[in-house]
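Bench log, entry 3. Co-assembly request; chain sequences pasted below exactly as received.
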Amino acid sequence: MTKEEAQGATEEEQQAQSKKGQKKQQKEAEKAAKKAEKQAKLAAEQQSTEEDDFAKDRYGMPAMVQSQQKLDRALVRVQDLTPERADQLIWLRARVHTSRAKGKQCFLVLRQQQFNVQALVAVGDRASKQMVKFAANITKESIVDVEAAVRKVEQKIESCSQQDVELHIERIFVVSQAEARLPLQLDDAVRPEAVGEEEGRATVNQDTKLDNRVIDLRTTTSQAIFRLQSGVCQLFRDTLTTKGFVEIQTPKIISAASEGGANVFTVSYFKTSAYLAQSPQLYKQMCICADFEKVFCVGPVFRAEDSNTHRHLTEFVGLDIEMAFNYHYHEVIDSITDTMVQIFKGLRDNFQTEIQTVNKQFPSEPFKFLEPTLRLEFTEGVAMLREAGVEMGDEEDLSTPNEKLLGRLVKEKYDTDFYVLDKYPLAVRPFYTMPDPSDPKYSNSYDMFMRGEEILSGAQRVHDAQLLTERATHHQIDLEKIKAYIDSFRYGAPPHGGGGIGLERVCMLYLGLHNVRQTSMFPRDPKRLTP
Amino acid sequence: MPMYQVKPVCGGDIKIDLPSCMYKLPNVHAQQGNSCTSEHALQNGEVDPAVKALEARQDEIMRKLYELKAAVEGLAKTVTTPDADLDLTVISSLSSPTFSSTTLKGTTDLDTLLGKDHGALRDIVINANPAQPPLTLLVLHSLLCQRYRVLSTVHVHSSVASVPPQLLSCLGPRHADSYARQLFQLGFTLIWKDVPKLQMKFSIQNMCPIEGEANVARFLFKLLAPYPGDAALATSVDSWVDTAFFQLVEGSAKEQAAVLRALNSALGRSPWLVGPEFSLADVACYCCLLRSGSASVAPANVQRWLKSCENVGHFGPAKALLQ
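Structure output for the full assembly:
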């Protein structure tokens, strides 16, 4: 296979290089270490002194940073390297992305998170041949401390994020050396899937990426995805707090499965066993009965579903909302959809760089939405599907392909990737869903879709203990198991409703990615338990 | 000289009441206790409605027959004598009654116009650019609301950063029943979006999107009343609509002045632009005139006509938006 051959060839090259490099490094290491200590003792000197023995103290591998002393050296961030800093002498710490020797020069690309800059070591009055060779032999991904002069360039450097400047290195020290053989190459990990003439160039398998997650997370795409995810969480909290919601923390070790016993993880709990919470449903509702009126919680959710699909994880982060309303559950829908729209607007306005970075590797259509959010009724959705040729019953739940088709039809007609489908049939919803007052076949429940995939399932909850008991009996649920749940509604409960979204799924669908594992930092699914 | 003279037995102009129903049955309800109607009383609940239904069906069939006959006659005239002048009096009597100026009553039916109802709200989606609000559509929306139960909503698309608040409330306040979509006959969804040209979408399967404010206005107007049956009048309406959109709005000052003169002369002959009735031409020309800003410098007939349009009502939201 092409991938393995390519990897084998580079490995051999690297091994050959590192053998030479290591011999040289061993000689220079001790001298450089002593000299580096002397220099470090002086106060932050920005000018390197010229010595006759020519550059031996301007490179090398110093001793491991064990906090020997506290230097007041200011390190500049790569993203701040702009033409304004031209001709300044600065220190910075970054990773070596690539190093390439060309005769008397060595070109390095130094990378820091999403930013990288080109650096140059040239044989001259500042650097010796041995220094250039040393720079060329630094292994990829090693962390280096570099003192360099910032120089403007006439021609833009297209391959770097800092396109207008270049660093001319005066001193270079390896702070932490990476092993020569990397399990995956970052350039391969960022390469988009091959199309046309690009076929044959290596890309990295998802499983390999997930097995070596630490390295894969260093890529610009991963950095962008998780910054965006952090943004989603931040916007969720901020929007809800502005609306007067209170953040709560619910227990994850619970005594009884809240939504049907099949999909729970069991843990041993001292002399008995307990379960990991499938959702904070029960506790959110108890908070409403405890007069908190509007609550939200952000926490892990555990589902023991043996589903190996592109959108299921066994553990994910759930963003859940629950609120008491005055007269109609549409107040809840309006609140939730407004929160989602604020999140989308915040992402659209503040995270464009991240979205563009992800699009380079995974191209997709930008996410479109309407404000206020489009709300269609289930019967309308069924009518649209029937018009498109799908045969389905009035009270039948939507299958995944039908959901996707409906998403496309809605996109075609209204040009929105986000909409709410209201008034689902009662038969397909859980027992605590409030039935519709005028038509017993339907319920006050709703689903929200992004790009044709479901992200939220919510409803008005039954807040009357007697009706709840009736509904539970109708669904043949053992009343003993949910006694505590029903009891919470016996002492005055306001009408309330809510819903929950999965953080990873929302990010995946917003960016138009195709697998939820790309948006989960260390994903958990039926086949994966580490890292 | 006649041999025998007989006085006329009956007058010459006695009105004979021709029966309207083919089969007559005695009224079951009026003669309850009468023995001679005992057999009718037995069939009490079954006879009356069936007869009524039969009557109605027969009426319907006779009416259709007459219409068909008239249409065929008209066509026959054109076929047999191709260069004969079309008898306007005959043709105008064929056209279905149009509408009064305030309430439009036409023989239109949503099922025939928009296709069979699949059990869902028929939603008309209009994508408009906030830089050019479609005034004619606002007027037509107001007319539609009078005729049908319309659920109107306004959305802002993510391609537009924000719109001024009057554009958000241009369709009027939210209907009290808007939480129950199936109570409405028609949906009117206005989306403010960054589109180069106004666009309307209705049925994805059967219709392609309709572009251009004039064309969407024609579509919406057909929901209110059919176009005048007379071909000349219909063409006249279309011509005024096009004049309004192409010359009044997009034309140079010279073209606009020319249109104003044409309007003036047309309005000198009749109270409305096309014939004696208020039509789509009046809506289009009013809105385009307002948008071009030359309403104040319009000649006398046009000013009078502008006032009559405003008296019709429904032009309020459009005017408010321009302020």
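Residues 34-42, 82-107 of chain B have pLDDT under 50 and may be disordered. The longest strand of chain B covers residues 150-157.
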